[in-house]
Write a structure and sequence with these properties.
Oligomer: single chain
Structural class: alpha/beta
Largest sheet: 9 strands, mixed
Shape: globular
CATH architecture: Alpha-Beta Complex
Strand order of the largest sheet: 3-2-1-4-8-5-9-7-6
Length: 229
């Protein structure tokens, strides 16, 4: 499995945190960065894939995806910042499910406004709900399926999730004791990250005050430069 991180230079101030935490917690994973322009703020060991930011969000990603050589990917955005160690054992197990075509996609966060989850008979940590379809949240899936979500589409990032169709055998991860955060989603015990750290251009202190305060201290960030909610 490899990581694909989508970002834009508008988010450069977040890169030291995002990439710093990826290197801290997932240094053994090859990482591709889809970005509109290169920068020395992107770690040298990461593979850059440049897109034209005049294109729509879906077109940008579609034009980049064939540069990825590996079959199984973990896709995420730069404001989805790790705040604790991922459970690599679970990640490897989920990767095997994808690689062997047992499931089509595994979203690493559970989402439901009413805790209305159905457990999979395959694995009790995999659940479904009306939000099981692919979205921009961290998700493990095959590159070729990932590509189909963007092919011949001209959607902005805000339109993308509503326009994406559900595929069979798409699951979310819920081990059991996850804390609900906000109205819809639960903390991920497998991939503990901020979903999301930036809300409408500002730091999301409403949902992630402790986690972000730790980040601000570690990386010497003044949150008022960007603003907070």
């Amino acid at each position: 499995m490899v990581i694909i991180a989508y970002t834009h230079t508008d988010m450069k101030d977040v890169w030291p945190v995002f990439f710093g935490r990826l290197k801290k917690y997932m240094s053994n994973y090859k990482t591709y960065v889809f970005v509109n322009d290169d920068s020395d703020l992107i770690p040298a060991e990461y593979t850059r894939v440049l897109y034209d930011d005049k294109l729509k969000y879906t077109q940008r990603i579609f034009n980049c995806i064939d540069k990825v050589q590996e079959d199984v990917i973990l896709f995420l955005h730069e404001d989805m910042i790790l705040y604790d160690t991922p459970n690599i054992g679970y990640l490897k197990k989920y990767e095997e499910y994808i690689l062997n075509n047992i499931v089509n996609g595994i979203k690493l966060i559970a989402t439901s406004p009413n805790n209305n989850f159905i457990k999979s008979s395959l694995d009790e940590t995999l659940v479904t709900s009306e939000f099981s379809k692919f979205s921009i949240q961290p998700t493990i899936l095959k590159k070729e399926l990932f590509k189909t979500f963007f092919e011949n589409k001209e959607f902005s990032i805000w339109e993308f999730e509503d326009k994406t169709n559900f595929f069979e055998l798409q699951f979310m991860v819920k081990i059991g004791p996850e804390k609900k955060r906000g109205l819809y989603h639960y903390d991920s015990l497998v991939f503990p990250y901020t979903a999301t750290a930036i809300n409408k251009g500002r730091w999301n202190m409403t949902e992630y005050q402790k986690e972000l305060n730790d980040i601000f201290e570690e990386y010497d960030i003044n949150p008022f430069d960007r603003g907070i909610w």
